[in-house]
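Re: the request from the purification team.
They wanted to know what the chain is likely to look like in 3D before they choose a buffer screen. I agreed to run a prediction and write the result into the notebook, where they can find it.
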Amino acid sequence: MSENNEKALVEVKHLKEYFNINVGMFKSKPLKAVDDVSFSIKKGETLGLVGESGCGKTTVGRTILHLYKPTAGEVIYDGKPIVTKEDIKEFRKKATMVFQDPYSSLDPRMTVSDIIGEPLDIHKMYSSKAERREKILELMSQVGLNSEHASRYAHEFSGGQRQRIGIARALALKPEFVVCDEPVSALDVSIQAQVINMFDELQEKMGLTYLFVAHDILVVRHISDRIAVMYLGKMVELADADEIYSHPLHPYTKSLMSAVPQPDPKVARANKRIVLSGDIPSPLNAPSGCPFRTRCPYAAERCAEEVPEFKEVSSGHFAACHRLNEIN
């Protein structure tokens, strides 16, 4: 699947991640957390990945980095498929992750200096203790932490500062690709803006490429070049951020966009909120055919019989729906 003519840094092709869940005595059933997802990210670009809790966003990020072994499909980095253990080791020098919860992703027994320096220790990226300390202080400065913070422990910091420590650790090996897994959802709103702006600045300064996972569509729109929408393990729409915001095609994306708060009261009153009926089904018992059909106001017989193809509808705008032409 080629979304553009420019060379992609990261390509994900037909990625699947199934977890076997015990459902009774000696019985297991696959939970399809990620089910046939394909996309690519250009160098220096930010792809936002949005959807409800439990739709598989985080699993996509973790599977790309091989924190989970993919059930099927392939991840291609800079033109080279990531297959062997050696490939994964090399890939992890160039690709890293900022985790969602700064409270649980930092070891409480380690000082800030040791947390940030851990990737340097693992990959032996320094020749002396002085060089190690110099690199750690430089990383701390990049994310707005003072050098005197180096000997403190994570519990002595606020949530925003802890997330900065996590970001400094992620940048330790000078990566090219960063998976940001809801990096601001656990932070106060006032701190969120600071951290988002820091991601922007770091991208500009270091030439980073991001996969930015979030459920807050306003945050994603602010930082992303393109936005992908997921529902129940499948990709349902993908387009430029402005395009998906102003012309959503898929019924699920339309519902998400209608929930975005509008600062202008006149626009807000005119904006019709599309409320979905029912709850999101369990990925263990996903509906047949289109995963969204049980909550879709446009669902027809065909939607229950076959899975809609994720295809290019207009230049760079992809969607998966049988009835796109009828509802748009």
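For the purification team: The longest strand covers residues 8-24.
Please add any questions underneath this entry.
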